[in-house]
Amino acid sequence: MDNIKFDEATQKELSVFLEKQQAEARLHSSIHNFTGICWDKCVTGTPSTRFSRAEESCLSNCVERFLDTSLYMVRRIEEQRSALENGTTKFS
Amino acid sequence: MTDFLKSSAPTDMNAKKEAVMNAVRNEIALTNAQQLMNSANERCYKACITKPGTSLSSGEQTCLSRCLDRYMEAFNIVRRTYMTRLSKERMEDQANVI
């Protein structure tokens, strides 16, 4: 079975499949990353049998604000760059 | 290698395709589980084992199993929030295009 070759259609199918799987893996990695960051921020006491309301909303706010932060940073850097290009103001 | 191999039976080719796909799926599922375990392990150790003794006490074990449950729950809350946000942003992007 090792020397079987894939025809063109199958190669295409496999590359689409691989791309999808890679995208999913990247998504999972981000979720793991956020879970770690937000756990550290929101879950401070000894873990109990259920989350408190506060912990639960902290976790989801944490994700939202983290994403806001990253959008904000991108916008700031773009602003600063265009300000530099226009030569009007330097970093404020 | 040689061209005539290309014309091998399509069922063999499909079987090999399925095998490749399953291998990739398994690999990704494994990585995912490992990431979850590593990160839960680290955090639950921090939360539950404050003074390491000569063995895991029953109190520590209770804490660890609760912590693991909470970690999974946190993962699900984070995933739900993130997915909702992603689909909301995708819809806004589409609205902007129109």
Automatic annotation (TrEMBL), chain A:
What organism is the protein native to?
Mycena venus
Output the superkingdom of the source species.
Eukaryota
- Describe the family membership recorded for this protein in Swiss-Prot or TrEMBL: Belongs to the small Tim family.
Q: Name one GO biological process term.
A: protein transport
Q: How does it assemble?
A: Heterohexamer.
Give an example GO cellular component term for this record.
Answer: mitochondrial inner membrane
Q: Tell me if GTP-binding is a UniProt keyword of this record.
A: no
The protein depicted here goes by the name Mitochondrial import inner membrane translocase subunit
Its keywords, alphabetically, are:
Chaperone, Disulfide bond, Membrane, Mitochondrion, Mitochondrion inner membrane, Protein transport, Translocation, Transport
Gene3D superfamilies, per database record = Mitochondrial import inner membrane translocase subunit tim13 like domains
The written remark on domains in the entry is: The twin CX3C motif contains 4 conserved Cys residues that form 2 disulfide bonds in the mitochondrial intermembrane space.
Tell me the membrane topology, using the record's own terms: Peripheral membrane protein
**Briefly, what is this protein's role?**
Mitochondrial intermembrane chaperone that participates in the import and insertion of some multi-pass transmembrane proteins into the mitochondrial inner membrane. Also required for the transfer of beta-barrel precursors from the TOM complex to the sorting and assembly machinery (SAM complex) of the outer membrane. Acts as a chaperone-like protein that protects the hydrophobic precursors from aggregation and guide them through the mitochondrial intermembrane space.
TrEMBL record, chain B:
Q: Which family does it belong to?
A: Belongs to the small Tim family.
Q: How does it sit in the membrane?
A: Peripheral membrane protein
Please cite one Gene Ontology biological process associated with this protein. protein transport
Assembly with partners or alone? Heterohexamer.
Query: What organism does the UniProt record list as the source?
Result: Mycena venus
GO MF annotation terms: metal ion binding
Q: Record's InterPro entries?
A: Tim10-like, Tim10-like_dom_sf
Sorted keywords for this record are:
Chaperone, Disulfide bond, Membrane, Metal-binding, Mitochondrion, Mitochondrion inner membrane, Protein transport, Translocation, Transport, Zinc
Q: What does this protein do?
A: Mitochondrial intermembrane chaperone that participates in the import and insertion of some multi-pass transmembrane proteins into the mitochondrial inner membrane. Also required for the transfer of beta-barrel precursors from the TOM complex to the sorting and assembly machinery (SAM complex) of the outer membrane. Acts as a chaperone-like protein that protects the hydrophobic precursors from aggregation and guide them through the mitochondrial intermembrane space.
- The chain positions of domain Tim10-like read 24-83
Classification via SUPFAM superfamilies: Tim10-like
The answer to whether keyword Nuclease applies is no
Question: A Pfam family for this UniProt protein?
Answer: zf-Tim10_DDP
What's this protein's name? Mitochondrial import inner membrane translocase subunit
Task: List localization entries.
Answer: Mitochondrion inner membrane
- Which GO CC terms are listed, alphabetically? mitochondrial inner membrane; mitochondrial intermembrane space chaperone complex
Q: What is known of its domains?
A: The twin CX3C motif contains 4 conserved Cys residues that form 2 disulfide bonds in the mitochondrial intermembrane space.
